[in-house]
């Protein structure tokens, strides 16, 4: 008996050539996730299925946790594999499977078999009936329920025989690498890691940019962002994190522009710079953790002003979410504990006591002209000094 996990994935995206790309990406992401477990493994594709083989001695929790980080997987099934397709052996293994996995036999079950080889001496109806019979004989309390069984025992006869009944839920979504690449504006807060997670879940590769303002923001604040990127990278694969020194730009805006407009103008420069890096790294869109009305810089009017500088689409997956809903996801994906560490954020250091909540675009643009003298040079300098950290 070998130890194998059968990977179930949603068939919905699997049309024509897409199916091939989808499976390639899924296999690549499974390999990436499995490497993190330190277990030996092989990933196989056979007859439209994906299998992960591991040694007899392995930690099921570690393997399942790793696979639960791979978007595209809807179910993870620990499978018992028989290399011999002798029918008596299948019955015996099925009885043993029920015995080992369900200590309480006061349950209902149904056998669901599939026979990929038509030369097998029994058809699937016969297999269902005969294996069912063997199980009923072995355990007097157990009953059959074909409509709503507690246990659905799958038997698949292909080149070898697979027996399984447990389907552990996967994260769903689409494999990363099938949906292009986008640039995440990643701060140390709660929202942006969740936003990156959500877009990656739709198959999009993620790079990230963090705006750092030393000495106003510390090395620890930067490390926190690296740590968050690392947690997110368990789902996405390696993240290229660009750290941009934003201090001079921020100071310049602070000197030249009305303080109640500071946040908006700063955010417009963040978007411009992120967009420039995105273009240079073949990212087709930006991602932010913005949500309408959460803070002054996220009212509809403020978002209009921020968006105006963007020439590429900006994905804001949290736009209609309540904070509590975002927190719930961040706890589930385990970024929350890191996000709430109390290190300063460059957006909070220079914020005005009363930031505008209904900025007017024409007024903002007029005040931005006061930066004309030096801002291009400062932006270019920040881009030139981009520090790239590869997080995995
Ligand atoms: P978060 O919890 O993601 O920090 P927030 O509620 O603090 O969000 P803002 O500070 O207004 O909201 O930031 C809105 C979005 O802008 C963030 O979700 C993030 O995508 C981006 N952002 C803010 N600050 C930075 C930064 N220092 N570096 C990179 N991106 C940032
Ligand atoms: Mg923030």
Q: How do the helices and strands line up, and which of them pair or pack?
A:
Elements: E1 2-9, H1 17-35, E2 42-46, E3 49-54, H2 60-67, E4 73-82, H3 87-101, E5 108-115, H4 124-138, E6 143-144, E7 151-157, E8 161-164, E9 168-169, E10 181-185, H5 191-200, E11 205-212, H6 219-236, E12 239-245, H7 247-256, H8 262-280, E13 285-287, H9 300-307, E14 314-315, H10 323-332, H11 336-339, H12 346-349, H13 361-368, H14 375-384, E15 387-391
Bound molecules: adenosine-5'-triphosphate (ATP) and magnesium ion.
Adenosine-5'-triphosphate binds next to helix 5, strand 11 and helix 12.
Describe this structure in words.
This protein is an alpha/beta fold and 392 residues long. The chain folds into two domains: 2-169, VC0802-like, CATH 3.30.2130; 181-391, Rossmann fold (3-Layer(aba) Sandwich), CATH 3.40.50. 40% of the residues lie in helices and 21% in strands. The protein contains 14 helices and 15 strands. The chain has helices spanning 17-35, 60-67, 87-101, 124-138, 191-200, 219-236, 247-256, 262-280, 300-307, 323-332, 336-339, 346-349, 361-368, 375-384; strands at residues 2-9, 42-46, 49-54, 73-82, 108-115, 143-144, 151-157, 161-164, 168-169, 181-185, 205-212, 239-245, 285-287, 314-315, 387-391. Strands 1, 2, 3, 4, 5, 6, 7, 8 and 9 form a nine-stranded mixed sheet that branches. α5 runs parallel beside α6. The longest helix has 19 residues, at 17-35. The mean pLDDT is 94. Bound molecules: adenosine-5'-triphosphate (ATP) and magnesium ion.
């Amino acid at each position: 008996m070998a130890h194998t996990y059968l990977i179930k994935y949603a068939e919905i995206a699997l049309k024509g050539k897409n199916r091939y790309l989808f499976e390639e990406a899924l296999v690549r992401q499974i390999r990436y996730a499995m490497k993190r477990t330190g277990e030996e493994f092989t990933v196989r594709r056979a007859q439209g299925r994906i299998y992960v083989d591991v040694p007899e001695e392995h930690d099921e929790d570690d393997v399942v946790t790793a696979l639960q980080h791979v978007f595209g997987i809807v179910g993870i099934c620990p499978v018992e594999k028989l290399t011999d397709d002798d029918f008596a052996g299948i019955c015996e293994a099925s009885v043993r499977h029920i015995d080992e996995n369900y200590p309480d036999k006061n349950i209902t079950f149904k056998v669901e078999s599939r026979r990929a080889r038509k030369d097998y001496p029994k058809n699937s109806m016969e297999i269902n009936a005969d294996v069912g019979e063997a199980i009923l004989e072995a355990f007097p309390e157990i009953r059959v329920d074909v409509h709503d069984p507690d246990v659905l025992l799958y038997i698949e006869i292909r080149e070898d025989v697979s027996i399984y009944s447990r389907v552990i839920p996967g994260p769903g979504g689409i494999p990363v690498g099938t949906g292009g690449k986008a640039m995440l504006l990643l701060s140390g807060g709660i929202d942006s890691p969740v936003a990156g997670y959500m877009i990656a879940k739709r198959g999009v590769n993620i790079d990230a940019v963090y705006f750092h303002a030393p000495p106003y923001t510390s090395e620890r604040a930067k490390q926190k962002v690296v740590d968050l990127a690392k947690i997110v990278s368990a789902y996405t694969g390696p993240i290229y994190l660009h750290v941009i020194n934003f201090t001079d730009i921020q100071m310049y805006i602070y000197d030249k522009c009305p303080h109640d407009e500071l946040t908006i103008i700063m955010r417009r420069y963040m978007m411009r710079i992120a967009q420039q890096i995105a273009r240079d790294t073949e990212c087709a869109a930006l991602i932010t953790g913005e949500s309408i009305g959460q803070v002054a810089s996220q009212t509809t009017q403020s978002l209009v002003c921020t968006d105006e500088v963007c020439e590429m689409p900006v994905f804001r997956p949290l736009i209609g979410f309540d904070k509590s809903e975002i927190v719930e996801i961040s706890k589930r994906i385990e970024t929350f504990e890191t996000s709430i560490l109390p290190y300063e954020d460059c957006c909070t250091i220079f914020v005005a006591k009363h930031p505008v909540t209904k900025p007017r675009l024409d007024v903002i643009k007029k005040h931005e002209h006061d930066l004309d003298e030096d801002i291009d040079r400062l932006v270019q300098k920040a881009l030139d000094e981009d520090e790239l950290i590869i997080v995995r």
